[in-house]
Amino acid sequence: MIITPRPVRHPPLHFLAFFSFVTASSIAFAQAPAVRSIIADGGNSDGYDMAPETRLEVVKAANAKITTLLPPGPFAPTWESLKQNYRVPAWLDEAKFGLSVHWGLYSVPAYHNEWYEKHMYAQFRAWHVEHFGPPDKFGYKDFIAQFKTEKFDPEAWAELFKKSGARFVAPTVQHHDNFALWDSKVTPFNSMAMGPHRDLMGELAKAVRARGLKFGVSNHGIENFQFINPPKDLADDLRAKSADLFDPKWADFYNYADRSDAACEKFLINWWDRNIELIEKFQPDLLWFDNGVDQRYLDPLKLRLAAYFYNRAAAWGKEVSISTKKAAFSPTNKNSETIASIIDFEKIGARSPSGIRTGNWQVHETIGSPSWGYTNDLKVFPPGVIIARLADTVAKNGCFFLNLSPKADGTIPQDQQDTLLEVGRWLKVNGEAIYGTHNWTTFGVGGGRGDGGPHVRFTVKGEALYAIVIGEGPANGDVNLTTLAANPALEGKISTVSLLGASGAVAFTHGADGLHIKLPAVAPCRYACVLKILGLKMNPPTATPDGNPI
Predict the structure, then answer these.
(1) Deepest of 35, 181, 307, 308, by most Cβ within 10 A of its Cβ?
(2) CB burial readout 40-72, b (16+ within 10 A) else e
(3) pLDDT of 20-56, one tens digit each?
């Protein structure tokens, strides 16, 4: 198998150009159009993008009514203070692989996706009526009683997570429907008071941490305020009947009947209270937010919450971080100038960097299609696809954040488990090419989504260069890495090449046409073999204290 550079969207940076590249200022970095495309330096969208459709005055009014005192510590609720005091956690830079979980009321209908609440009052209305009845008789709230989670075993989940090779877990503790999966004192709409009558996330956090994994929380609740938008005929009917969306008992659950400024203030204060409760209850290692926190008018609340979280973490003696999308924590509206937050990209190839992005960042990816939450038609990706996407992300200097989709009864489907366990088995052999690594001068050649064709991804740790050759075992036992052809840009001389999982060194020749490697007839693992190459001078780590690109 000859691994040759195929035409790629962005040519790889050769070694000398790399050092020129890393010494450029972040401003120059962000302003170069080609580089901006490579690193995905996108800002906030002009629309509300799931944020409450409100104004700065309303946010300030809500902020003024919050009585929670800021804990003592180095962080003040200003961009300047956050920038001065924040540092990316060492554990997050090392991890490279984490898990998220989308699980909630939407797992009960298991239809289309996790936005069921939004769609059941509009385009899925006929399907909902056929399967559950009209909304005035069976609204989204009625899924709470059916969300029994009777087979949920947090110990089994945590053991699966451990075996997957993931280093941290950050489940969605409430999605856009704002139903809390923990024992809450600040909202009655929670899993202890209703539905399963269990502190689901409290149980899971204990089991996960008992296995040495970091535990974070993913909060999508701010999207709830204007999540539901039924057509006029249905809204008029429910209003006339004081049913479901207009039932006063459920007004604070749906946030539909009243969307006044006063209602928005109340909602924002409760969003704050829930986050403080999550921080105090879980002492999360990672506090993750979805799109809804992106808008600049929410900055007063976000700054205050960040200062609270980071001061509490300082008192706990823990390294923690917030993670957000786009430019939620960037007053300049460039995600390459984020303050006190790790940028998260949704989906490989869709919005994520197409090439190397230095600093620290994540890619959030599903284990199957078409949904984040469990659906009856969810097709789980084979292990080779997930491993290829993991390698592609890490080779570009990112952290791979893989989502699982449990059923409403609390079971993780066997096909998801099988894929996850295969990833874990691969990492057990090849983890040294993933954990604690950083990008080389080029991330690789060929496709990176597990979509066929020979391709390779490079990572670096210390003075070792790893070549992750994607595919189920070596073809004909021969590999030629033309990217490593002998040339003046390669400093040093290759001394040894070994295959992770195999004993001893492998035979190779190095010349102007590439690095020729003879591999054993039997591969040590499926899906991707990893070559460890020593002797060349490697580039230094490219992580940054603030997480932004160099």
Answers:
(1) 181
(2) bbbebeeebbbbbebeeebbebbbeeeeeeebe
(3) 222 222 222 333 456 667 888 888 877 778 999 999 9
CA–CA separation, 104 vs 195, rounded Å? Answer: 10
- Reported as half-sphere exposure (CB side, CA atoms, 13 A), residue 123 has a value of 7
pLDDT at residue 350, rounded to an integer: 72
**Residue-range domain boundaries for the chain:** 2-40+438-536, 56-199+213-223+260-344
DSSP code string of 506-541:
-EEEEETTEEEEE--SS-SSSSEEEEEEEEEPPPPP
Residue 512 CB partners (closer than 8 Å, separation 6+):
485, 486, 487
CATH of 56-199+213-223+260-344, one of 3.40.50.920, 2.40.30.10, 3.20.20.80, 1.25.40.10: 3.20.20.80
Paired tokens of 31: 């302003």
Using CA atoms, how far apart are residues 476 and 509, in angstroms rounded to an integer?
17
Rounded distance between C-alpha atoms, residue 26 and residue 29, angstroms:
5
* pLDDT over threshold 80, residue 448: no
Instruction: Please report the pLDDT score of residue 409 as a whole number.
Output: 98
The Cα–Cα gap between 287 and 216 comes to 6
Residues 384 and 392: beta-carbon distance below 8 Å: no
Q: How many CB atoms lie within 10 A of CB 453?
A: 9
HEC secondary structure over 304-328: HHHHHHHHHHHHHCCCCEEEEECCC
Write the single-letter amino acid at 65.
Answer: K
- Is 170 within 8 Å of 286 (Cβ atoms)? yes
Q: What is the DSSP letter of 283?
A: -
What is the rounded CA–CA span in Å between residue 276 and residue 287? 11
State the distance between the two ends of the chain, measured CA to CA, in whole angstroms: 35
Among the four given CATH numbers 2.60.40.1180, 3.30.160.40, 3.10.129.10, 2.10.220.10, the one describing domain 2-40+438-536: 2.60.40.1180
> How confident is the model at residue 425, as a pLDDT?
98
pLDDT band at residue 521 using 50, 70 and 90 as cut-offs? confident
Q: Give me 501's structure tokens.
A: 């999982």
Question: Could you tell me the pLDDT band of residue 473, with boundaries at 50, 70 and 90?
Answer: low
Element (H, E) at 3: strand 2-3
Q: In this predicted structure, what is the pLDDT of residue 474? A: 53
Sign of the dihedral through C-alpha 171, 173, 175, 181:
positive
Tell me which residue has tokens 């020129």: 20
Q: Could you identify the residue written with the tokens 């049913």? A: 243
* Cα separation, 182 vs 275, whole angstroms: 12
Kindly tell me the sign of the dihedral angle through the C-alpha atoms of 51, 55, 56, 61: negative
Sign of the Cα pseudo-torsion (92, 93, 94, 96, in order) = positive
